[in-house]
Amino acid sequence: MAIIITVSNQKGGVGKTTTSAALATGIAAAGKRVLGVDLDPQGNFGFCLGLEPAGAGTPTILDALQGKVPVAEAVGRTEYCDILPSDISLSSGLDNAAAGHRESILKETLRPIIGLYDYVIIDTPPALNLLTVNAYAVSDFLIIPMGTDIMSLVGLSQLKETIETVRGSFNPNLKVMGILLTRFNRRTLLARDVLEMAGQLAGQIGTVVFETKIRNGVAIAEAPAHGESIYEYSPRSAAVKDYQDFLDEIAETIHLKEQRR
Predict the structure, then answer these.
(1) For 179-204, b where at least 16 C-beta lie within 10 A, e where not — what string?
(2) Terminal CA-CA length for the chain
(3) How far is it, in rounded angstroms, from Cα 178 to Cα 143?
(4) pLDDT in tens, 85-114
(5) Three-state helix/strand/coil letters over the chain
(6) Which of 15, 38, 14, 35 is nearest to 25 (CA)?
(7) Burial, 76: exposed, middle or buried (Cβ in 10 Å; 0-12, 13-18, 19+)?
(8) Max alpha carbon distance in the chain (Å)?
(9) Phi and psi at residue 199, to the nearest 5°
(10) In this predicted model, which residue has the larger pLDDT, 149 or 55?
(11) Does residue 258 surpass a pLDDT of 70?
């Protein structure tokens, strides 16, 4: 059975898609079969990995969620892994979903193909909405990327409430793997303050702040424009090395035994 990891934070600009892509390509490089699921209507997950933008008539995850096409027909192929792509239509496409199973549509949609993969990585929108709840409801683990600024700490209590609601109603086995600090500069007083407060907030939601912190790096911003994995685009970048360390840190938790190529 696939291990399903959701990357989520209701605040934008904290590195959700970069982290999702880093996880997907890093795990795939270990020889695992990986499916990326793009639940962000901006559709950047697939773009990061070289998937062509969905054109007219090209099925997306919304078509699969609405039952218009079999989910397998919506899967796009990249050099690194498979992707269920999205576009802006996803922002309101689930509004008319049947009330009885609104929170489990994603789980039911993925069911026919979930056995084809070892890992599923879900990128979520910068909001706590029905799409986010669906991701939480189907996941084994949740990773929360957080920028090194005070505003990134705001709203974590609301995220805590959403997690508790999902655990109580849809997925009692959901585990918060940890908070990943991004754009981190340990030399600044602000970074040290945010790290301390993030540790306190992590305790409130029963998790930890990862030992690995992701530094700023031009390479991780440039790589999506080339449709390349950050590990191939600039393996010497400090931020890329941080993501490699992050994969090593979580490898035991997600049972990723093989060495990355």
Answers:
(1) bbbbbbeeeeeebeebbeebeebbee
(2) 23
(3) 5
(4) 999 989 887 776 655 678 999 999 999 999
(5) CCEEEEECCCCCCCCHHHHHHHHHHHHHCCCCCEEEEECCCCCHHHHHCCCCCCCCCCCCHHHHHCCCCCHHHHCEECCCCEEECCCHHHHCCCCCCCHHHHHHHHHHHHCCCHHHCCEEEEECCCCCCHHHHHHHHHCCEEEEEEECCHHHHCCHHHHHHHHHHHHHHCCCCCEEEEEEEECCCCCCHHHHHHHHHHHHHHHHCCCCECCCCCCCCHHHHHHHHHCCCHHHHCCCCHHHHHHHHHHHHHHCCCCCCCCCC
(6) 35
(7) buried
(8) 52
(9) -65, -40
(10) 149
(11) no
- Average pLDDT of the chain to the nearest whole number: 89
Stronger pLDDT, 207 or 96, i.e. the higher one:
207
